[in-house]
Amino acid sequence: MKPLSFGFLVISLALLAFVIVRYGVSPERVAVHLTPGPTQPQVSPAEAGIDTVALAQAVDYAAKRHTRALLVGRGGHLVFQKYWGDTNLDTVVELSGFTPALAAIATGSAINDRLIASIDLPAAHYLPSLVPGNASIRDLLSVREGTPEFEHDVDALARLLEKVTGKDYPQLIAERIWTPLEGGEFALVHRGRDAPVRADCCIRARLADWMRIGEVLANDGIFEGNQLTPPHFVKQMLTPSSKESPTGFFTHVDGVFAAHDLARLESRGGNRLWVVPSLRLVILRYGRDPGAAGWDEAMIPDTIIRGTEGWKPPVVGEGADPKLFAPH
What pLDDT does residue 14 have? Predict the structure, then answer.
């Protein structure tokens, strides 16, 4: 081998090793092969009570920001689909930032089956080797992305779920979430050879199935009459985990939007799954980074929300408790 070529190979291998160690990248995926059920029932925007002018404005904004798909669902129906390029409802995409929410839904499913008594129990009750101290299951669910403990805590939650269900993580996600939703094939990645799969990122799944996940979040854990989680568990997912927290259980609940209960899953490049339970509304944007055009987090969801039948603009003082104020 020529010295130059050998040197190039050494450098390439070193870079690959760095990427694997630093980012947990592994080319090995664990694919779960499922036959998808029928597409969610479709109705027109008019039937769903969504203004077509609002949809057109959202499309115009999205089109200028490298969007490849903009989907809207309401009341368990697909209402609107707009694609750019060769993207379609069955396109399989990697939306890493959406992945942890599946662990939260699976936790609700385990509670539904009485495999977990309460999220306020110490996690060490189920998994003493990975979760020392008094950290509760709620603490694992409430960990914020970007913190040093995020990756560990999501992984610990996945291992806890494996223990209480007796299934490995891909299998329990398939049985507890994907099969009830009649979803198609999905794939997770290993952290490394002989290591368990990652629960904090990197799932690949169809756009159609993310819309189904959106319906579960918008409808208190119910999909087509099937209750995946206990009543009100999803409401906890979409509620700040502590006073003034910007996150729920692996969901983002910060920001001021046209609907007070809007929550979202987010992934790099402006990829978003917005849900508004009060309107049973689901909005999915998939594409590349908006780039120089910039990104207004509220533009797409607020435009569609304001064009949705049943939406009411917030009233000043609405929700305020008069007992908190002294009488005049």
Answer: 43
List the structure tokens of 318: 């609405």
CA–CA distance, 123 with 135 (Å, rounded to integer):
6
Closest CA to 145 of 259, 253, 15, 27: 253
| pLDDT tens digit sequence for 296-314 | 999 999 999 999 999 998 7
Instruction: Order across the sheet with 29-32: list the strands.
Output: 29-32, 186-189, 204-206, 92-94
pTM: 0.88
pLDDT for residue 321: 53
Most distant CA atoms of the chain, gap in Å: 90
Q: Whose CA is closest to 207, among 87, 327, 54, 109? A: 87
Measured distance CA(37)–CA(35) in Å, rounded: 7
For 7-43, letters b (16+ CB in 10 Å) and e give eeeeeeeeeeeeeeeeebebeebbebebebeeebeeb
Amino acid at site 81: Q
Helix (H) / strand (E) element for 107: namely: helix 100-112
223: part of which helix (H) or strand (E)?
Answer: strand 222-223
Q: Residue 142's pLDDT band (boundaries 50, 70, 90)?
A: very high
Whole-number CA gyration radius for the chain: 21
User: From CA 299, how far away is CA 65, in angstroms rounded?
Assistant: 12
Q: Which residues fall within 8 angstroms of residue 24, CB to CB, at 6 or more apart? A: 151, 191, 192, 198, 201
Output the six-digit token pair for 199: 């629960």
pLDDT at 181: 98
Closest listed residue to residue 237, CA positions, set 227, 251, 223 = 251
Residue 59 — pLDDT band, cuts 50, 70, 90? very high
Q: Helix, strand or coil for residue 42?
A: strand
Show Cβ contacts of residue 20 under 8 Å, excluding neighbours closer than 6 positions.
26, 192
191 neighbors 178 (Cβ within 8 angstroms)? no
